[in-house]
Amino acid sequence: MKTLCKLTKNELTTDFKKIIKIVKKPKFICEKCARVAKDKEYLCNPTALKK
Ligand SMILES: [Zn+2]
Questions:
Q1: Residue ranges in the chain whose pLDDT is less than 70
Q2: For the whole model, what pTM was predicted?
Q3: pLDDT tens, 26-36?
Q4: Which residues lie closer than 8 Å to 30 by C-beta, 6 or more apart?
Q5: How many whole angstroms from 37 Cα to the centroid of ligand 1?
Q6: 30 CA distance to ligand 1 centroid (A)?
């Protein structure tokens, strides 16, 4: 799976359940796109949410 930042609308619909699991308890936020994920590998410019 590619980063959440690069998902198209179609991919988002197809992988929606998987994506919910990734964003449910986020630990990282993308500074560029403001998307969140539990692992930084899903974001293009990740930063830890808690410092
Ligand atoms: Zn991004």
A1: 51
A2: 0.86
A3: 999 999 999 99
A4: 3, 4, 5, 36, 37, 43, 44, 45, 46, 47
A5: 10
A6: 5
